[in-house]
Amino acid sequence: MKRIVVALLVASILCGFCSCVENSYYNTPRQTTCAHDWEPATCTEPKTCSKCGETFGDALGHTVVFGTCKRCGNTYTLWGDGEFEDEFDRPIGVKYLIGFSEGEFSNSATNGSELFVAVQVTSTSIGILLWEYGDNIVNTYGSDKYYIKILDGNGEVHRLVGNQYSERIFIDDEENKTEVLDLLKTPQILKFHLSRSGYSLDTYSFDINTSGFNELYDQLYN
Ligand SMILES: [Zn+2]
Ligand SMILES: [Zn+2]
Questions:
Q1: Predicted local confidence at residue 16, as pLDDT
Q2: What is the span of the domain harbouring residue 127?
Q3: CA of 24 to the centre of ligand 2 (A)
């Protein structure tokens, strides 16, 4: 009998029945006379009766992808932080800031296809990661050189070079690094254009919103 009750209880939760059904299984004093009219759960509110205000279950929580909740459209600061880990998933004491964006890429096979981007900044490095078609990370076995143009919020174009080792395109020239860090620390939209040396048709374009970067950078490294 207990098993059936549990099964029914689970079924009632799964099919979204309200707690009046749930209460009928137990002889609790929590009986209600309200014929509930349930509003579905949202990111921030649990399933709620519009008549009596009774709630059921939990709020769904936001599902944030690239700074926007897929469900409610709330936008968030684009910059988060993390810590590198070793092969055994142990933090190694090196923190980074990370910001995501979307854009498009072209090469000899495709034009204007979907691109996902991460910009990863440690206290000593600036790296860019690119995912062609949103999930296929751009990789190199040796090293590749990229010509990078950045259009800043004042309409000025900054030209620099990046070097890719494995998955990361590093802006590793000290002068370039200082220049890009200054750009990131100023709230603005930066328009990036990368072209891969030796593959003139390989281009990557994306915008980076620097809003919130400076505060998080100070928090982590100062
Ligand atoms: Zn109700
Ligand atoms: Zn949401």
A1: 40
A2: 65-221
A3: 33
